[in-house]
Design brief:
transmembrane helix, 2 strands, 1% strand, Phos_transporter, phosphate transport, two-stranded antiparallel ribbon, membrane, transport
Length: 494
């Protein structure tokens, strides 16, 4: 064999070996890709623990607070992965926002809401579910709150994994209830409050769905089904944007900025009315300019609802950061307060560093794990466009305002997802109604069979069942898990 042949064979062997190494690198990258997000989350949790240790220094309670901070960081990551999808999902599903844009807006406005308007005074036993005096000692209280925090975080993590948006506040309430029962028995729980929360499982999604369906019916009747859609849009879109602006103004004053300013309910509604009228007048020439040159078809109408939808998603995120984050990190604040002062029966203010854990944890959780739930909420329950997503966002704000007026403990998660269900089921009803009219004019051989009509359902029943089941079991599952964790933690501490 010549030297040239030997060299060619050597190069061929070298190419095969390099090819194997290249395939190995691709395989390693493919396998390690799913581990990147959990790895970053783990680093964040470790850094939170180290920061808490440095902040407190060497005291007898340092280890307890550091452990609670780690659990709080884990909880915040799960809130970002699960709860924020309700605000951003409709805008992403309607293609008004890209996934990257939604994550950026949500991270900014959730953090701003938590740091600017969050940190409201919370009860040390999370909304009065368990009487403070029922937990006799400081140690029992701390372990109960620790168990509640970890149990609610674990349950939200599981819900995110199976693709079910659940209420973080309900998970915390369930965790507190379970730990309270484990520590002091069933008599320690305020069952009247728990009954109101159980009622909200039905009230929240039904009310949200009905309001969203009503607005979608109005848009269809007044704009979409009109012969000249653009002319109808020039009349009604400014009014609808004004309604949204006024509603969100009142929503933010009542819920998002309540720590900064206290405004009576009637005054908040009056402020919303004034802002709504101003925005309505401003939007009349704006809508006229936007509609110039648009074709007379449904696709053209999406342009007119895009910007209001993005603004509503940002405001929902701000209000969520100001409210639900405080509820979620409330147990951590209670542990810090009880550990450093020895008082566990009074109210506590959430320290700034605890709010920072909540704000940054939500942002990290959203960026690392949020897209899965955002896609599910935005497009996998039912197909959304800007008009339908507008109805969902507006319904969420209106329902919260109505609940505040009636004193009902509703869940923003249940409202938003219930509104999506409402939009989807209304579309099914409306499509069936219109099909029924068309079928009457068709010969029998051209009519669609009942099986085919069932196949064309516009709401995925599998998601309805999964989400509904997750809502029902959130409180009892978090309670059971929290009770077990309290028993384990209290035994370890002995």
């Amino acid at each position: 064999m010549s030297d040239k042949d030997l060299e060619a064979r050597h190069l061929e062997t070298l190419d095969r070996d390099l090819g194997r190494f290249s395939n190995l690198e691709h395989a390693a990258a493919y396998v390690s890709r799913p581990l990147v997000a959990p790895g970053i989350a783990f680093i964040f949790i470790v850094l939170v623990g180290l920061a808490a240790a440095l902040l407190l220094g060497s005291t007898s309670q340092t280890m307890i607070v550091v452990t609670a901070a780690v659990f709080g960081a884990y909880m915040a990551l799960n809130i970002g992965a699960n709860d924020v999808a309700n605000n951003m999902g409709p805008a992403v599903g309607a293609n008004a926002l890209s996934m990257g844009g939604a994550i950026a807006i949500a991270a900014i406005f959730e953090s701003a809401g938590a740091l600017i308007a969050g940190g409201d005074v919370v009860s040390t036993i999370a909304k009065g579910i368990v009487a403070p005096e029922a937990l006799n000692t400081q140690a029992s209280f701390i372990w109960a709150m620790m168990a509640a925090l970890l149990a609610s975080a674990l349950w939200i993590n599981l819900a995110t994994w199976i693709g079910a948006p659940v209420s973080t506040t309900h998970a915390v309430v369930g965790g507190v209830m379970g730990a309270g029962i484990a520590a002091a028995g069933f008599g320690a729980v305020d069952w009247g409050q728990m009954g109101a929360i159980a009622a909200s499982w039905v009230i929240s999604p039904v009310l949200g769905g009905v309001i969203a369906a009503a607005f979608l019916w109005f848009i269809k009747e007044r704009i979409i089904y009109r012969e000249d859609k653009i002319a109808a849009a020039r009349v009604w879109v400014p009014a609808l944007v004004g309604v949204m602006a006024g509603t969100f103004a009142a929503y933010l004053v009542l819920k998002g900025l309540k720590r900064l300013i206290h405004v009576p309910f009637g005054m908040a509604l009056l402020m919303g009315l004034v802002i709504g009228v101003i925005c309505w007048r401003i939007m009349i020439p704006v809508t006229r300019r936007q509609s110039q040159g648009l074709e007379n078809r449904n696709k053209s109408l999406k342009v007119l609802f895009g910007i209001p939808l993005v603004v509503s998603a940002a405001l929902l995120s701000f209000a969520h950061g100001a409210n639900d984050v405080a509820n979620a990190v409330g147990p951590l604040a209670a542990i810090v307060h009880a550990s450093t002062t020895g008082d566990f029966a009074g109210d506590v203010s959430i320290p700034l560093w605890v709010m920072l854990i909540g704000a940054f944890g939500i942002s990290f959780g959203l960026c690392l794990f949020g897209p899965k739930l955002i896609r599910m909420v935005g497009s996998q329950i039912t197909k959304l466009n800007p008009m339908r997503a507008y109805c969902v966002a507006l319904s969420a704000a209106i329902t919260v305002i109505l609940a505040s007026a009636l004193g009902l403990p509703v869940s923003s998660t249940h409202i938003a997802v219930g509104a999506i269900f409402g939009v989807g089921f209304f579309r099914e009803w409306d499509a069936e109604r219109r099909l029924q009219k068309a079928r009457m004019a068709l010969p029998a051989e051209n009519q669609i069979s009942a099986d085919e009509r069932r196949r064309r359902k516009l709401v995925r029943r599998s998601h309805v069942m999964t989400i509904g089941a997750a809502w029902i079991v959130t409180v009892p599952a978090a309670a059971l898990l929290s009770g077990v964790l309290f028993w384990l933690l209290s035994r370890i501490a002995l």
